[in-house]
């Protein structure tokens, strides 16, 4: 979309804008450029903070000059919450389904039918991934995004324009007029990548909420949410793969209209205009045999893709031939889906166990007849909460359909009610904690039942496991198995007890030789020096994830200062809302928690925060980023050295980065850094030389 010269000019303008506010048009152009780099190319040239600064500047200018606001300004992505039901709108062309094929013979038969319809022996095909998301239809008129809609019943769908604007990979405007296009309808799929899905589910778990079942459901559910801000948080992507309608302005002088004569050409045009398309994944093939080979090859690497696919879509490449073949009332004749082997299986629901988490949440876990799906054997499946059991009408003894999509956790799709014999039993959700027998409570507005007995053994064990975990205090030799073993033997009762283990008794246990004991002792001692944010995260405060823990660690000189923060003061910190603020306040106003922290401090754990002035040193004024495996230093050791000598750390490659310090398997950060001339790429020894000289 942007030439090398345009990229250079826009990056130069980016560097100038912080010193000079610039015009509204300049700010818009720069922000659109960086949206394209981030959402389409996945290759940002500025940090999130830099982008946010430019965005806020534009917001301020537009607020001062409301008459200059345009509908395609980056600030106009954010909409107001919907307070009415979605309006149904007609598609310009019906959104039909696809005919499915499941093997090579199905494709060969389809190829013969197509050739018979167009009376030719030679047809060129285009094959591309079949994305597993939610279908959308976009209409652009006079270069501006006019409307976004769901598939609906195929003839009409819900108007979700406000939510579509929250998806950064959907341009609010595009220069279709350069191709002589006045009005266009484009079809595509809204997706959540596997990584974004994992991160989003992780954030839900930290809040004690049930995770989403799979990326497809996450994407589909997002499109009809009433709060556009919540849609934006899900970090959705849109991949556009078909032009269903075009109205040309015959009077205009356009470039390369020939692109519109083929499906592959139309994808190229959309990519040139700044849309995310399968232009790099698709392949144009001369015959059905090569199509079959390409589909089989793609199936073997489906798990390597960042998003879920469930097959391939094969299309007649020539648009004129597409029009000749036409459509049925159900599907276009010129396209077919080649479905990959199903990642579903049927099993029997044998029982349900109720597990207690570290925050007291009760999670029902289905125990099924072991079944092989997607390369793994599945025997346990989370049912999330009581509402899921009721909504799916699950019963002990049911035959159930189990699905596992890629790297995603397995889940029960539905019971096969028609196979019931009458012997199935209703699942009874407990009214008391299955571990301590205290009554369960269901907080208002939540779907999760909880045990509120803080001394419940199950919660104590889970809190200890969380405390020693990698992202918390990182006590490597402890681990879940050892925590459970030590607790069951009475060697460990609570978090402070980690630091007073009886190593003599442990040495008598099977598998604990002197080396194991030394490793365990050293790991526990080393954890005393962890940064405060790791301790805060390790405490397992409800709703407090790693990011919030870092925010808290940087806000105090000592953890005990958090006792004196009001809920209002906590809410003034980055990304802390009322719910999170209340949880933090309650934790630090609980006498038992303060007593535990006092014991940990007396034992020698670091309770000092990161609220310190920038250090002055040999690296002052320089920014650093470390990537790959360094020869002698661990990543955190190298970063600490940089900060101790006055350097500042960046989290991503951008024009603000001065030095990228590389090791083995440096990966994409090195590739990105090579594209920015101002970044100096050095190795570990060169970095150390900067400190020692």
UniProtKB/TrEMBL annotation:
Protein keywords: DNA damage, DNA repair, DNA replication, Ligase, Magnesium, Manganese, Metal-binding, NAD, Zinc
Cellular compartments per GO CC: cytosol
Residues at the active site: 130 (n6-amp-lysine intermediate)
InterPro entries per record: BRCT_dom, BRCT_dom_sf, DisA/LigA_HHH, DNA_ligase, DNAligase_adenylation, DNAligase_N, Hlx-hairpin-Hlx_DNA-bd_motif, NA-bd_OB-fold
Cofactor: Mg(2+); Mn(2+)
Gene3D superfamilies for this protein: 5' to 3' exonuclease, C-terminal subdomain, 6.20.10.30, BRCT domain, DNA ligase/mRNA capping enzyme, Helix hairpin bin, Nucleic acid-binding proteins
Start and end residues of each BRCT domain: 614-693
Binding site residues for Zn(2+): 433, 436, 456
EC number: 6.5.1.2
Pfam families: BRCT (PF00533), DNA_ligase_aden (PF01653), DNA_ligase_ZBD (PF03119), HHH_2 (PF12826), OB_DNA_ligase (PF03120)
Gene Ontology molecular function, alphabetical: DNA binding; DNA ligase (NAD+) activity; metal ion binding
SUPFAM superfamilies linked to this entry: BRCT domain, DNA ligase/mRNA capping enzyme, catalytic domain, Nucleic acid-binding proteins, RuvA domain 2-like
Catalyses which reaction(s): NAD(+) + (deoxyribonucleotide)n-3'-hydroxyl + 5'-phospho-(deoxyribonucleotide)m = (deoxyribonucleotide)n+m + AMP + beta-nicotinamide D-nucleotide
Residues holding NAD(+): 48-52, 97-98, 128, 151, 189, 315, 339
Annotated HAMAP family: DNA_ligase_A
Function (record text): DNA ligase that catalyzes the formation of phosphodiester linkages between 5'-phosphoryl and 3'-hydroxyl groups in double-stranded DNA using NAD as a coenzyme and as the energy source for the reaction. It is essential for DNA replication and repair of damaged DNA.
Record family assignment: Belongs to the NAD-dependent DNA ligase family. LigA subfamily.
Protein name as annotated: DNA ligase
Gene that encodes the chain: ligA
């Amino acid at each position: 979309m942007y030439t090398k010269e345009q990229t250079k000019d826009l990056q130069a303008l980016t560097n100038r804008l912080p010193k000079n506010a610039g015009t509204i048009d300049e700010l818009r152009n720069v922000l659109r450029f960086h949206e394209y780099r981030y959402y389409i190319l996945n290759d940002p040239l500025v940090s999130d903070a830099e982008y946010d600064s430019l965005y806020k500047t534009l917001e301020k200018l537009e607020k001062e000059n409301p008459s200059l606001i345009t509908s395609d300004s980056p600030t106009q992505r954010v909409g107001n919450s919907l307070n009415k039901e979605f309006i149904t709108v007609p598609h310009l062309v019906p959104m039909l389904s696809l005919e499915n094929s499941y093997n090579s013979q199905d494709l060969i038969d389809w190829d013969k039918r197509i050739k018979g319809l167009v009376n030719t022996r030679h047809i060129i095909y285009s094959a591309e991934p079949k994305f597993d998301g939610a279908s959308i239809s976009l209409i652009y008129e006079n270069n501006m995004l006019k409307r976004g809609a769901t598939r609906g019943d195929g003839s009409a769908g819900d108007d979700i324009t406000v939510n579509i604007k929250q998806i950064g990979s959907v341009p609010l405007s595009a220069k279709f007029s350069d191709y002589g296009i006045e009005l266009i309808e484009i079809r595509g799929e809204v997706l959540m990548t596997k990584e974004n899905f994992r991160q989003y589910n992780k954030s839900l778990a930290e809040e004690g909420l049930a995770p989403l079942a799979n990326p497809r459901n996450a994407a589909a559910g997002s499109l009809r949410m009433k709060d556009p801000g919540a849609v934006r948080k899900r970090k959705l992507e849109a991949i556009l793969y078909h032009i269903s309608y075009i109205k040309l302005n015959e009077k205009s002088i356009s470039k390369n209209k020939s692109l519109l004569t083929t499906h592959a050409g139309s994808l190229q045009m959309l990519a040139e205009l700044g849309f995310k398309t399968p232009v790099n994944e698709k392949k144009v093939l001369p015959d059905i045999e090569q199509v079959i080979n390409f589909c089989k090859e793609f199936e073997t690497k489906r798990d390597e893709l960042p998003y879920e696919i469930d097959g391939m879509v094969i299309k007649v490449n020539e648009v004129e031939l597409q029009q000749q073949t036409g459509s049925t009332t159900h599907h276009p004749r010129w396209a077919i889906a080649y479905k990959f082997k199903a990642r579903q299986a049927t099993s029997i629901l044998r029982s349900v166990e109720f597990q207690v988490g570290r925050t007291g949440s009760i999670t029902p876990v289905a125990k099924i007849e072991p079944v092989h799906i997607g390369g793994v054997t599945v025997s346990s499946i989370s049912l999330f909460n009581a509402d899921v059991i009721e909504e799916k009408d699950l019963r002990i003894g049911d035959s159930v359909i189990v699905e596992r999509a890629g790297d995603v956790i397995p889940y029960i799709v539905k019971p096969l009610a028609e196979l019931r014999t009458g012997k199935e039993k209703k699942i009874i959700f407990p009214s008391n904690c299955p571990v301590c027998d205290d009554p369960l409570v269901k907080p208002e507005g939540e779907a999760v039942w909880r045990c509120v007995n803080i001394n419940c053994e199950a919660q104590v064990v889970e809190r200890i496991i969380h405390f020693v975990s990698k992202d918390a205090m990182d006590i490597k030799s402890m681990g879940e198995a050892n925590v459970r073993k030590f607790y069951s033997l009475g060697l460990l009762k609570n978090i402070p007890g980690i630091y007073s283990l009886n190593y003599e008794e442990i040495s008598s246990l099977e598998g604990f030789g002197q080396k194991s004991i030394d490793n365990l002792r050293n790991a526990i001692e080393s954890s005393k020096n962890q940064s405060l944010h790791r301790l805060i995260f390790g405490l397992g405060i409800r709703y407090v994830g790693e990011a919030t823990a870092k925010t808290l660690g940087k806000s105090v000189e000592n953890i005990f200062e958090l006792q004196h923060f009001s809920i209002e003061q906590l809410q003034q910190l980055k990304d802390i809302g009322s719910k999170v603020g209340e949880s933090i306040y309650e934790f630090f106003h609980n006498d038992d928690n303060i007593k535990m922290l006092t014991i940990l401090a007396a034992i020698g754990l670091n309770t000092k925060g990161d609220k310190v002035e920038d250090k002055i040193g040999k690296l002052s004024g320089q920014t650093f980023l470390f990537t790959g495996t360094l020869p002698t230093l661990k990543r955190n050791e190298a970063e600490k050295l940089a900060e101790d000598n006055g350097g500042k750390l960046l989290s991503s490659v951008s024009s603000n980065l001065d030095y990228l310090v590389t090791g083995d398997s440096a990966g994409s950060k090195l590739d990105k850094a090579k594209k920015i001339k101002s970044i100096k790429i050095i190795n570990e020894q060169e970095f150390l030389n900067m400190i020692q000289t």
